[in-house]
Amino acid sequence: MRIERPKGTRDFLPDEMERRREIEKVMRQIAESYGYREISTPTFEHLELFTIKSGEGIVEEIYAFKDKGDRDLALRPELTAPVMRMFVNECSVMPRPLRFYYFSNCFRYENPQKGRYREFWQFGVELIGSGSYLADLEVILLAYRILKELGINFELNIGHVGLLRELLKDLSEERVRKIMRFIDKKDFESLERFLEENDLMDYYDDIKTLISMKGRKEVIENAREVLPDFDFGYIESVAMGLERLEVDFNLDFSIVRGLDYYTGVVFEIYAVEGLGAQNQICGGGSYRLTHLFGGGDVPSTGFAIGFDRVAEICSVKSEKAERIVVACTPGMELNALRIAENLREKGLVVYTDVMERGLKKQLSFANTVNARFAVIVAEREYEKGVVLVKDMESGEQREVPKSSILEYFGL
Ligand code: ATP
Ligand code: MG
């Protein structure tokens, strides 16, 4: 019986895996250069961790299940809530700020399509303990640097959920949440219908005006006219900081993010080409979550990069180490293995035969794995103290004393 993989999952073959690792390496290196250190949390958590703020509605989107002890669990759909749970449980007395990064798989019950999977990977950071604009600045800068370093053509859009929250401050939390969801999904028809049905059309014009504002710092002036009492100082500082750091961005007050825990500056990064509709490659912002998990009120900022979408459009190539095949005539296997071991110790990638094939077949295998050289351990030569080294590109073959193989390869 042929068994297919589950819908929305993928297999990664070695070439693809090497490329993904290369991209991951760049992300790790840059995050580490800003002082972020890696953490890891469980693949599954109590379902409550994800519903506590977003409500039961989110259960539709996640892999939730009961275990044999009748506990409600869920495969993590994202990592911010798990990291903050970990922070409250394990790190709340550590000196702040804390800088964590993660590279982990997430699971969502989505409708699979290009760039949208049921298992996917996120590379993200959380900067915990600061409510300063400098924290937002650092996190935005870090996301920007990573994507620049990977050579991606993207657009950075920055908003502030405080504006809409201020505008809607007399409405219930539930209504605000609904309105924000429609705006996040850019579903303006449903938004209008919802406002109509709930007798909220008075808000329509101001919402529309705010969320259509997009541009550089000047949009702050326009927003002030809609919200004269709102303190724009914070978003202004972030915008000014980014300009000083020569980061390209737009302010866009329609950016509100799908999850409910964001409180301040929020941002989204879109790929300009190569991804079609699923072009959001990063989302982030400042949020408050710890008080929900039994901690104090700890302001934090973070982002999550959609690793699979980035990998899809990123042209980074993996650097392949040079490969060598140590081939031999029958009876010479263990001598060949010893030579292979010496070369591996020096960092080379070395294949030896495990199929008990003849020399000729071993050499054609060397071609299939793109070996640069073949070291041939043939009985007659070996007894004279030499092996043959064959250059697989030129076909040239040379006798090399056994004792100087390492030197021959410059090791
Ligand atoms: P979208 O609106 O595309 O569903 P989102 O707002 O739900 O994204 P976040 O929760 O902010 O996404 O996750 C951060 C990033 O993770 C997204 O910007 C995206 O690149 C990536 N991502 C989210 N869901 C998926 C998925 N199902 N498959 C692949 N990547 C995903
Ligand atoms: Mg989504």
Report on the structure:
The protein has helices spanning about 15-35, 50-55, 80-90, 135-150, 160-165, 175-185, 190-195, 205-210, 220-225, 235-245, 305-315, 335-345, 360-370, 380-385, 405-410, and strands at about 35-40, 45, 65, 70-75, 100-105, 120-130, 155-160, 215, 250, 260-270, 280-285, 300-305, 325-330, 350, 375, 385-390, 395-400. By secondary structure, it is of the alpha+beta class. The protein folds into two domains: about 15-315, BirA Bifunctional Protein, domain 2; about 325-410, Rossmann fold, CATH 3.40.50. The strands form three sheets. It has a nine-stranded mixed β-sheet with strand order 1-5-6-12-11-10-7-9-8. α1 (about 15-35) runs antiparallel to α4, α4 (about 135-150) runs parallel beside α10 (about 235-245) and α6 (about 175-185) packs antiparallel against α7 (about 190-195). The two termini are about 50 Å apart. The mean pLDDT is about 95. The structure holds adenosine-5'-triphosphate (ATP) and magnesium ion. Adenosine-5'-triphosphate binds near residues 278 and 280.
Fold blueprint:
Elements: H1 14-33, E1 37-38, E2 44-46, H2 48-54, E3 64-66, E4 72-75, H3 80-91, E5 98-107, E6 119-128, H4 133-149, E7 154-160, H5 161-167, H6 173-184, H7 188-197, H8 204-211, E8 214-215, H9 218-226, H10 233-244, E9 250-252, E10 262-271, E11 280-287, E12 300-306, H11 307-313, E13 323-328, H12 333-345, E14 349-352, H13 359-368, E15 373-377, H14 379-383, E16 386-391, E17 397-401, H15 405-408
Parallel strand pairs: 1-5, 7-9, 13-14, 13-15
Antiparallel strand pairs: 2-4, 3-4, 5-6, 6-12, 7-10, 8-9, 10-11, 11-12, 15-16, 16-17
Helix pairs in contact: 1-4, 4-10, 6-7
The protein binds adenosine-5'-triphosphate (ATP) and magnesium ion.
The site of adenosine-5'-triphosphate has 18 residues, from strand 6, strand 11, strand 12 and helix 11.
